[in-house]
Amino acid sequence: MSGAEADVLVVGGGMGGVAAALAALRRGRTVVLTEETDWLGGQLTSQGVPPDEHPWIEQFGATRSYRRLRTAIRDHYRTWYPLTRESREATDLNPGRGTVSRLCCEPRVAAAVLAGMVGPYLSAGRLTIRYLHRPVAADVDGDRVTGVTFAGPDGEPFHVRAAYVLDATELGDLLPLAGIEHVTGFESAAETGEPSAPAQAQPGNMQAFSWVFAVEHRAGEDHTVDRPKDYAFWRDYRPPFWPDRLLSLVAPDPRTLEPKPRVFVPHASSEPVVADQSRDPGDTDLWVFRRILCREVFEPGFAVSDVVVVNWPQIDYLPGPLIGVTEDERARHLQGARDQALSMLYWLQTEAPRPDGGTGWPGLRLRPDVMGTADGLAKSPYIRESRRIRARRTIVEHDLSLAVRGEHGAVAYHDTVGVGMYRIDLHPSTGGDNYIDVASCPFQIPLGALLPVRVRNVLAAGKNLGTTHITNGCYRLHPVEWNAGEAAGALAAHCLDNRLEPAQVHEDPAALERFQAELVADGFELAWPQVRGY
């Protein structure tokens, strides 16, 4: 068995994991970072999802390092791509002109930028990254985790010892391995008091995950994929709460649940868009919704086609979750999600209605290069819901619901370590729920939500922080996950520097104030200006 030692071990290289590692490294600490795929970035890269952000992101509402990431992505396009003059000079360059985000970009570009951000620390020898490694065991000594063992591609176990262990995995995989108290699925209203919670807890009821893919359209060509073997099942599949077959252009409006027709016509529009989900969720035109490369942004003739990410409700996988099931069931669900995604593609190519009265867009072509895979699907499924720690502070719906809080705004946490904003956006679930979509107020991230109730040297650094099933719906997005991970990495380094434990920082007002001052100096925003939720 090979091994390593570090001040901080970050398990998982998604948005939170990268931010956590960078925060500890900036403070002079050594870090081992592990990642199950061969890309850093999680939902932004290996899962293929453009960043879901609030409408003020260009001005405020994120950490300095997250802004640096966004700027670096734009600079990558300005440096290496033949942009039009207008695009090059645009301070808010949006390479995809998608309506979901003011920065829709290719996953491979985001992955390259993240690799560049960690590169100096690799050169300095203070960062070790183990790609294609997943945790399989944890060493536990009382209320501490002293080491973690990983399985890698060469078959040899890899063991890491560290003073602090940060769980930034997509599903909270370290929690059961280390016996850390956690929760899954839907909590009951009796436990949380949340208006949208059910009467009884539903630990197996989780948001659907999705296996996304990227396509372009080449008119006059035929790129139809082989008919998936389970296509007949997915073509006819209709959840009981859905207005039509899942493979169709009709789906519920997430906010009203009324049937809402969508439009899918390649290259029907190339006009500049304004991504502002406070005014319009932007999901009516599916070609534009998650477009990550718009050919009009570039010099004429450079790009034959736009490139669009298919991450729509039609590929939300509902038959079962990835947590709390056997390995065989998990493998079946993963394969099922891939089959569903390919069935959606085949339906678009062969059966989707066209404005001219015909059916199908055979010119749709997978873009494996964009996703960094051989088949054109993302490297990993898009995970919306993780195991969540039993935390010192659990964030509940009525802390930030606009209907509950109104003009008072979200609850102000004395232990804030960052801010975020998104509607409480719960996709259809494995338990048979339709969308739960609740207006929210701009909120804070409390330090107590990163701290397990018992274990002393493990911190949540991703979607596994102390939210509920409901509030996970707004704390799961890109900038919030980054902020949470960055705060966890900063806290681990701060505790090592000051010979403190996280609980001491949390419980001592003077110690907490010193840590918060350090965060502010490092570019964290701990409170919002006067803005109204949506």
From TrEMBL:
<dbReference type="InterPro" id="IPR036188">
    <property type="entry name" value="FAD/NAD-bd_sf"/>
</dbReference>
<dbReference type="InterPro" id="IPR005288">
    <property type="entry name" value="NadB"/>
</dbReference>
<protein>
    <recommendedName>
        <fullName>FAD-dependent oxidoreductase</fullName>
    </recommendedName>
</protein>
<dbReference type="GO" id="GO:0009435">
    <property type="term" value="P:NAD+ biosynthetic process"/>
</dbReference>
<dbReference type="Pfam" id="PF12831">
    <property type="entry name" value="FAD_oxidored"/>
</dbReference>
<dbReference type="GO" id="GO:0008734">
    <property type="term" value="F:L-aspartate oxidase activity"/>
</dbReference>
